[in-house]
Specification:
heterodimer, A: Immunoglobulin-like, 3-stranded antiparallel β-sheet, 8 strands, 52% strand, B: two-stranded antiparallel ribbon, 7 strands, globular
């Protein structure tokens, strides 16, 4: 089942600024809500998102309880060389999702 | 929106509808607007691009389910219907459609479950379950951009009329009809929100308020709760009739599934 969707240009010119968009399927349960019986619903959120470009970290995001479900994270980076971008979301209850995308730089 | 303001604005809407000589003139075909047109620029941008449209998470799940074998018959949707991109094109634009075995119109969700129980020999999927929403979204996605084309013939006419009657019937403790808001007062505000014309062009859709995908029936049940009417179960005949009327009312408008709404 789809855990995350990553969109970025397949190729770019060297030095070009590229936009990367990521969507992760996650309920982002705040930990502040209660059930109809008054029991606290335990917190279940993504804590951290990181993107590395050929091993170099280019984006890191800390996420908090007030963020919406299925968070959309969009950011830019400079296309330096061909290679792979690795995206990782880490969260509560052992949640870890990794996506890999490649880019060709000319 | 606090309950109190909500009730007050609903009461205002009711009062102004009365003044405006209640009986809902239907919106002329050329003046119909999708809820999309009433949204902010940011929300429209979110819907327009697959990369930012969270409904696509369900569509992708639906694609997986479409190809997954299920039930005692050990068949997947794809085993009979092949590639959904070809076989399901335009299908959602025709639903609810008349089903001879049930002798009444069925919604797209019901059609999927009829296939599951009849052909796949599998248990029906629960309404609003992730799986049913995903499959419905995947099927409906194939009709994106196509005009809604509900077929009304002698068999389906009585159900359309039942839906029309429900749309114009005052109900609930607030004694409001759908038409009072959505025909007579669209474009005005109910508390902070713009009242749309209620054209179901993008279901199942991602509602930011829900933080997830939901069906048209979920939306109808929301509205019915809002006017404090009795809420029919998912899949109830009343809801499907109303769904049929709303789709007919939106005939010719383009399918937006998976839409995003505030």
């Amino acid at each position: 089942m789809a855990r995350a969707v990553v969109t970025l240009p397949a190729q770019a010119k060297r030095g070009e600024i590229i936009e990367i968009k990521t969507l992760a399927a996650h309920p982002m349960e705040t930990g502040f809500r209660r059930t109809q019986l008054g029991e606290l619903i335990p917190r279940d959120i993504i804590r951290r998102f990181t993107c590395t470009y050929n091993g170099t970290e280019v984006c890191r995001v800390d996420l908090h309880p007030a963020m919406s479900a299925n968070p959309l994270i969009a950011f830019t980076t400079v296309a330096t060389e061909s290679g792979t971008l690795s995206f990782q979301w880490v969260g509560d209850n052992g949640y870890t999702v990794t996506e890999i995308a490649s880019i060709r730089v000319e | 929106m606090s309950l109190r303001t909500g009730v007050r604005s609903l009461a205002w809407a009711a009062a102004s509808a009365l003044l405006a000589n209640a009986w809902a003139a239907e919106i002329p075909l050329g003046e119909r607007r999708s809820g999309y047109d009433l949204m902010s620029r940011e929300t429209r941008a979110m819907q327009d691009e697959d990369a930012t449209n969270p409904g696509m998470l369900w569509v992708l799940d639906g694609e997986t389910l479409w190809n997954r074998k299920s039930g005692a018959a050990g068949r997947a949707c794809a085993d009979c219907h092949g590639d959904a991109r070809a076989s399901m094109k335009g299908v959602a634009a025709r639903y609810p459609a008349f089903d001879s075995s049930r002798a009444r119109p069925v919604s797209l969700e019901q059609r999927i479950n009829l296939c599951r129980t009849g052909r796949q020999k599998a248990a029906p999927l629960a309404y609003e379950s992730k799986e049913l929403l995903a499959l419905t979204a995947y099927v409906a996605r194939q009709s994106r951009g196509l005009p809604i084309s509900i077929l009304i013939d002698a068999r389906s006419k009585p159900f359309l009329e039942a839906g029309r009657e429900a749309f114009h019937r005052r109900q609930g403790q607030l004694n409001l009809a759908c038409a009072q808001c959505h025909d007579d007062n669209w474009g005005k505000r109910l508390a902070g929100s713009v009242i749309p014309q209620a054209h179901p062009t993008g279901y199942p859709l991602y509602r930011l308020e829900w933080q997830g995908l939901g069906s048209l029936e979920r939306r109808l049940r929301n509205c019915l709760t809002g006017i404090r009417a009795q809420v029919p179960d998912f899949g109830a005949a009343e809801l499907v009739d109303l769904e049929l009327f709303l789709m007919w009312r939106a005939r010719g408008m383009k399918i937006e599934t998976p839409a995003v709404r505030p």
